[in-house]
Every structure is written in structure tokens, then in C-alpha cells.
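Sample entry was shown:

___
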Amino acid sequence: MESTHLPQVAAILEGVRGRIDDGAGSDWRTGLPVLSGKLVTLRELRTSDAHPLFAMLTSEEVSRFISPPPSTVEGFERFIERSLDERSAGQCACFAVTLQGFDTAIGVFQVRETEPRFGTAEWGFAIGSPFWGTGVFVEAAELVLQFAFDILGVHRLEARAAVSNGRGNGALVKIGAVQEGVLRKSFLRNGRYLDQILYAIVEDDWRASREAPRLVHRHVH
């Protein structure tokens, strides 16, 4: 992570530190902890989330730059069942995003193991378009980063975004992800292969960003 990102990321993190609440001390494979911020709560997916997720994530503006979501409510139910099975197997953690004070799912965040014991992992996310630009994504992303590095023990967290997905690329840069290269013709969508940008956040950089406020404080005084 470039040093120019550190104060910005640190300022965001100040509001979400220490918010991994229920079950953080237990094995996440038996049930995901609840992650709480000022705007959002992230929790385990439930079968009842299938209807709201279908409504939120199947519009063209949401789905055009992600892998095709399930096309039916029943498809979302199967996705949720599969996510729970993969969590039990220790392969993946998938959270429903809800607003504080409400329990309706408005999006999902997923962290998937790509190397044994989450040495390297890949994350993906989708948020309903009515909540774009509200701060929901940034806060949810920082909670998931804390879970990934502190609970899963991730060393390197990767993400891919289509080059033409300006909003997705901007969101990743905003939370401190570093662009590492372009994967040519790597994403098939609507019969076309699109170029993707590979981003990564490395544990050492993420932890350094959390120290930035204290470093700045000492420098000023």
C-alpha cells in the first residue's frame, strides 16, 4: 500500500475498530461472528435473505460487472446453502450486509480461500444500487478486512474488477487496495471477454494503516 493512502484509510478505520462482536472468540467455521459498524451490521446469511438479495442484486446496473447472480429466488436459496456448507468446511465466509436497526439484507461480502489456511484469499462483494455512495460499502469493507486479517489470518487479499467498472475500481482504491496488473480477457460477461484489474491488500500494509493516527499524533505534538 502506498503511503499516500495511509491517513485516508486510517481515518475510515477509526470508526470500525473493535466491532467484531458475537462469536469472535469461537471457531468461525461453526458460525460467523456479527460485524457491527455505525451504519451497517454484517451477519451470517440466512435462507430468508434469498428474496431481498434477489431484489437487490439482479438489476442490470448491479450485475453487469460481476459474475451472473442467481436468476431466481430459489437460486439464491441454493447459493446461501452452498455458502453455509463452504463455511463449515473452512473454505469461505459470506456475510449478509444489513443497515443498523434493520435486518433486511442489502448486499453480500464473500472471502474465499485460494491458498491453504487463507495465506491468500479473494474477496468479492455486491451492494444494492440504492445504497451506492452512502458510505455503506466503505464501512462494510473495512469490517470485512478486519475479520479477514484478524480472524481468518489472511496474508494477502486479492480482488478483481473489470477495467470498465469505474465505480468498482474507485471503491477498491478508496479502501487502500493496490493495483498490481491487468488480467487480459479474463472475465466472460454477456458473451464478451473483458480485461480485469488485479488488486491486493497485504496484511503488513493494512496493519500499518491502522497505526497511522498514532504516528501522526506523535508527529504533531
